[in-house]
Design goal:
Blueprint: E1 2-6, H1 10-27, E2 32-36, H2 39-45, E3 53-57, H3 65-73, E4 80-85, H4 91-95, E5 101-104, H5 109-126, E6 129-134, E7 137-142, E8 146-152, E9 155-160, E10 165-166, H6 172-175, H7 177-180, E11 185-189, E12 192-195, E13 199-203, E14 206-209, E15 213-216, H8 222-247
Parallel strand pairs: 1-2, 1-3, 3-4, 4-5
Antiparallel strand pairs: 6-7, 8-9, 8-12, 9-10, 11-12, 13-14, 14-15
Helix pairs in contact: 2-3
């Protein structure tokens, strides 16, 4: 898990890193922690979907935490932002940035561990990231934003929920290895993988997806493929109902 810590006080930085390392050891969860001493330096190195969790000090000299968080939200809506504050004065503004939580300074082990455990319950459903190279650039896409992956000669076309299609130079079979183990992805034909969360319906041996995408389904296995999507859809509905009942 990649974590960013944006804090201009060296003592507070060292203290929080120690707590994060304790959490890492206790939970056997490898953490990659990058520290930045200002909002500006963080934004200079920021990449969309690079960090799952960002700890952000509110009071910083050059660019405060709220301004920095608003800049983050222009491109990344999914990362978890946890504010660090010595005062509750600006918390209303902080949560307008869709902050996940806040931690009052000085941070305690109990509070940090509690917030991290809550974040971990949220992360697996929203922030799994697919990383690949295209045109000498590193691309990061949320699994949830991937609509389909289609073989295209020596390239592989990947289309996201914003209508963008990228064509990295990669064989289809190698490219989809990280995706195929995820339950939401389904092979519907040779060289065609779809995200079932984006499937609208199956009709006349065609799979219709969001974004007006139509892809051919393997004829011989059409019934089994459609049934796999129906089973997945019903399982998602049942899981949602179970979670709702647990919350009552």
């Amino acid at each position: 898990m990649n974590i960013a810590l944006v804090e201009d006080n060296e003592t507070d930085t060292r203290h929080l890193v120690d707590l994060l390392r304790s959490f890492e050891k206790q939970n056997k969860l490898p953490l990659s922690i990058d520290c930045f001493n200002s909002g500006s330096s963080f934004l200079e190195n920021f990449e969309k979907y690079k960090y799952s969790i960002i700890f952000m000090d509110i009071f910083m000299a050059d660019k405060n935490g709220i301004e920095t968080a608003l800049s983050i939200r222009e491109t990344d809506q999914s990362c978890i932002i946890i504010f660090l504050t010595s005062s509750n004065e600006f918390l209303h503004e902080a949560f307008s940035c869709h902050a996940f939580e806040y931690i009052q300074k000085p941070a305690t082990e109990e509070r940090v561990f509690h917030v991290l455990n809550d974040a971990l319950q949220f992360l697996p459903q929203t922030s799994r990231v697919f990383k690949f190279s295209c045109s000498r650039q590193t691309i990061r896409l949320l699994y949830s934003d991937i609509v389909c992956v289609v073989a295209n000669g020596h390239n592989t076309d990947i289309t996201d929920s914003y209508g963008t299609t990228l064509s990295p130079y990669s064989s289809f079979s190698e490219f989809i290895k990280p995706l195929i183990s995820d339950s939401r992805f389904l092979l519907i034909n040779k060289g065609i993988l779809v995200n079932m969360d984006h499937v609208m319906k199956f009709e006349n041996k065609i799979c219709l997806l969001t974004g007006d995408i139509s892809l051919p389904v393997r004829v011989r296995e059409y019934a089994q493929i459609e049934q796999a999507w129906l089973d997945y859809t019903f399982a998602q509905i049942h899981a949602g109902l179970a979670e709702r009942n647990e919350g009552l």
